[in-house]
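G.,

No rush on this.
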Amino acid sequence: MQSARLDRLDSLRLSAAVRLRKLLVKGARLLPDETRRRLERRLRGREEALQIAGSRAFVVSCAKSGRTWLHVMLDAYEAASGRDLGVFFTHDNYIRDVTGGDGRPWHAGRRTIVLARHPADVAVSMFHHWRHRMTPRKRWINRYPDPARDIAMFDFVLREPAGMKHAIALLNRWAVEIDGREDALMVRYEDMRADPRRELARIVRFLDGTVDEAAIASAVEFGSFENMQRREREAAAAPDAPRQLRPGDVANPQSFKARSGEAGGWRRQFDADQVSQIDALVAANLDPYYGYAPSAAPVAGAAGR
């Protein structure tokens, strides 16, 4: 979906930027570790800046919030309906290293969707991704801990900067940045799981002003969890399939990108005291805009200013 939005000149510029990044990163290998990290993040941010220039709308989300699922459904909707939605997906990470000098968020002035998920579910899923799928390069760039460290899931989720703290900080920032904007929409993963047709239709209507109901039904079916995990298994058997489309280990269900697809499953990972600690952290730190009160499950449709 993203690359199709670039015209030929922008595509050439993006290709040149990627080649330049690889060349500069290779040439900077003798520089101090933090200098090299800042350099690569800025170069990756420049690449994202080129990509957002050709997009009409953005989906921003924490990693492990259902972005791939929504991406697949919107691609399928475009194919079934013949509509071009012009959406760019980002975790709002590297782009921050090269934009925002005037104090305005980089997504101001264009339609923006914040895709939210309970921070504990985000962190649990990220724990498995970090353990089983994340490349050493990505761990280094984003300051994730060494996987050789024996970090318990609860400690990763509650205490590591890469766990809930990171997710809460991003969600809080986006809540402020989209507050009062008519060109912004907040969508929760939990509501998508509860009623994917309703939520996908809401997203498409926000992006395009109109909805093709038959295309919505087709896109939801195509993007079902069972279909996504089946395609991931098929990719594991295809040597030429991109690495990001394959499980880390086809015999280990925790290494799949489409790992469980569950909303609220984090509660079963911890004992009652640990659940209480996580609930307390969310209640004390997460903007109530998202509606993630300390209850058995988020109340559908409860979020809003």
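When you get to it, here's the other one too:
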Amino acid sequence: MGGAGDSGGGNAGVGPWIERRARSGPDRIALIFGEHSITYGELAVRIRRLANALRHLGVARGDRVAWIGSNHPAFLESLFATGLLGAVLAPVNHRFDPSAMAAVLRDTEPVALIEHGTDPAPAPPSVRCRIRVGADDGDALAFDELLAGASDEAVEESVGLEDICLLPHTSGTSGGPKCVMLTHGNMTWNVVNLLSAADFRRDDVTIAIAPFFRTGGIGVNVLPVLFMGGTVVVPTDGSPDEILGLIERHRVTIGFGNPDLLDALTRSERWPEADLSSVRSVITGGAPVPERLIRTYLDRGVALLQGYGLTEAAPFALLLDPEHALSKVGSAGRPALLIDIRIEGADGANAAAGETGELVLRGPNVMTGYWRRQEANAGTLTADGWLRTGDAARMDQEGFLWIVDRQKDAFVVDGQRVYPGDIERVLARHPGVNDVGVVGVADPVRGAVAAAFVVPVDGVATPAGDLIKFCRQHLAPHKVPGSVTFVDALPRNSVGKLIRSALRELADG
């Protein structure tokens, strides 16, 4: 058996990262949660103890361990501990309704279930043990007590880059959520790609505001910062006021958040006076980024860098560099070092500059496939390794990409293909528009016509005719909406993506 400081077992995966960081900087702060901070040396001990405890409870190589709950350091400890064992962490969206949550758990068949801050989940028969973080639950093992009674011995298990590390699920905005098989190699190369495109440093401090159950919540800023030996601040309640206070207190240097989360910060009473001077840049993505939001951050001296990723790519693919933050506002940037991209036209050939087509990409960060979804795999992964993203994009002459929309959301007006995102971006520039969503509705003469749904600024609606006139000034005639409907809010999922199916129901109703 190896000693306590030995990763042992030929583990080439994610599991030993903290152990290896502890060798060179055991006293460096790894995590901050509330008033508590934990060093790399302390974190490495906790991860070993959790891995040994899970093994004692019967978790073995290849087994799934589910996580359900809000962000907490225990999630990261669980990720690295399962990585030491060669087991797989399967996070579940704790905001799902019970039936959707149960469906994901049945699909992944976890042998252990770790929960934090939620009501007990409907566990499938495969679950042999439940572990509770925080509040006591008589039917579950207490997380910290489990660690306190576990061995600190090194965990010896042979884990390769090809082994599955994480089993997150897609957002399920169309059809049910699909679980995505991400290997240790996918997770590792994702970090390498980010280091090739963004300015991460050894003394960085980041704040985890995006949900950990999404790959973006850990893959864009959290894992790269831990890989470099920096510090991750985990908020306790995630409110905008708390986040801005933590940025000031801990001198956060780099961040990531979905557009809706970052927009919520700007609406906090603390925003105008918050000290953001330590922040070099904030990466954003996961949903279309309004130009208004980018400029709001730039006005505060913070470079808001739009990127692009998806769960199937672990998730990072594109990023706009700071040098072009103003000249290429709205672009998702260019691909990272180890990612190849193509824009594929309807005929399968590469689209010319400025033409819209499907974004396909390839790289060592791309998933091995969907869990138990062979038919979906055949339609998403090509034989030579290209991932069909389903996203419509266009590229300019300099290689910068704009994500236009989902391919399936396009509709045909007067014989010409229309992407709702092109209309939404124009309407979002109007000073009276706070949020906007567009869908196509059937028209007996034109085939279809755009229907716009607008959330007005401060609840004061600009006359619909004025918004349509604004569109005529900036859009081709076939893209101009035939109607504008004012609503209090748009249907969006937990990462801010528009649920267009719900909007279509509203249009049809």
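The CA atoms of residues 212 and 218 lie 6 Å apart. Residues 1-8 have pLDDT under 50 and may be disordered.

Enjoy the weekend,
O.
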